Amino acid sequence: MDTVGTLEKFHEEGSAQIHPVILSGGAGTRLWPLSRASYPKQLLKLSSQRTMLQDTVARGLIDVGFAAPLLVCNEEHRFLVDDQLQQIGIKPQAILLEPKARNTGPAIAAAALWLLARDPDALMLVQPSDHVIASPADFHRAVMRGLAAAQEGRLVTFGIKPVRPDTGYGYIQSGEALMAGEGGSDGVFGVDRFVEKPDRETAQRFVDSGAFFWNSGIFLLSARAYLGELSRINPAMLEACERAVRDGQEDLAFFRLDAESFGAAPSLSIDHAVMEHTSRAAVVPVDMAWSDVGSWPALRDIATADGDGNVLQGDVLAERMTNSYVRSEGRLVAAVGLDNVVVVATDDAVLVADADSAAEVSGIVSKLRGQNRSESQQHVTCHRPWGHYRSVDAGDRFQVKRITVKPGAKLSLQKHYHRAEHWVVVHGTAMVQRGEERMLVRENESVYIPIGTEHRLENPGKLPLQLIEVQSGPYLGEDDIVRVSDNYGRA
Hints:
Layout: H1 3-12, E1 18-24, H2 52-59, E2 70-74, H3 78-87, E3 94-98, H4 104-116, E4 123-128, E5 132-133, H5 136-151, E6 155-160, E7 171-179, E8 188-195, H6 200-209, E9 212-222, H7 223-233, H8 235-246, E10 249-251, E11 254-256, H9 259-263, H10 270-275, E12 281-286, E13 290-291, H11 296-302, E14 311-313, E15 316-319, E16 325-328, E17 333-336, E18 341-345, E19 350-354, H12 361-370, E20 381-384, E21 387-395, E22 398-405, E23 413-415, E24 420-427, E25 430-434, E26 437-441, E27 446-449, E28 455-458, E29 465-472, E30 482-485
Parallel strand pairs: 1-2, 1-4, 2-3, 3-11, 6-12, 14-16, 15-17, 16-18
Antiparallel strand pairs: 4-9, 5-13, 6-9, 7-8, 7-9, 8-12, 10-11, 18-19, 20-21, 21-22, 22-29, 23-30, 24-27, 24-29, 25-26, 25-28
């Protein structure tokens, strides 16, 4: 029986519903300069025409029949996540907002508590939002193999059959067979131990043994079973998460976990919090063309290379170059006489690295943060719930931005203490509130906003509104915004 037929039979028999739980809290620093704290890798189109988040969400819905997804994300990314789901026509059960990053253990606990209040038999299919699974059919078949174990209270993880002695992954050593499969390694197995990232010699022994699998970070769990083990192994985490959900609040399309309570939860992964200490762990081996896309070489490896082993994306010219990954997000990049390198160019930064050292780019991000440089946090283009703006030029006492407002969207009613603004509409029609005035500003028309004047910009049309903003004044920082009212709860 195929995966869809198996799921239909599964639901007909009245079994528990599978709820995809998508974790979207990562920063993806190893894919800098494309991935930044304000716009991390799961929100980028890296391996397909959809973002990694969109691919992950669609994996559990299209032709499969899981419940609508439940997402857990950084509150700073909430509007971006919601917008990307709308783009592919998916309405989630909820989007839980983490006020502070506490790793995957508390995030999954909060999701389990939220689901149990609505479905006492909920099964959670927990997935990171930034992994690639090139064979979703094999993934779905593996989920079906793990269903019975999960319903019996096993905490099921999915082990990737290793194809090389990779030192960048954790490993799972399988134990006795719990449920037989069609092949010798196609069933469900107990877990003897979890192993942190080994050295190469140890990793080679693991691969040769046939008993070890890469730890995918994907889980199939009964919400009740996970919380039961958490209460036994890490009660402080469960107590903090219970308070965070109990005292949480609805906020527009989101559920905001209580900040103080959630911040009190120990910051531990699900592996350290539960899986390494439970006797209920089980592993389902699977070969599903998986990658966690944890570095630029990993992205090169899953892409289609040319005859010289190169992956070239964007405006790139190459001569006598082999086994390399070169990506441009705009400007021309020319490379000559190189082997095994990574070159990634964005509007404000260029990464050049030996491919074998590219995973160390996180160290560069740490240095940028230590110097309080914006390149570690955000791109030249900054996204907002109403659209986005792009810095074009800046100098002493002035800054120029290109602003795009989505149809029907409006900025907050706001004022500034240190800057004046001059708006020039280049495409569409703007509805502008300036003090007590309201006016339509059309293409090639402009309006001036004096310092201290309350103002608001709105797009009443059906097409994106584009304008040029010229700011002038002694201080031009984004924190010189006093919001009087706001449609997005930011006032």
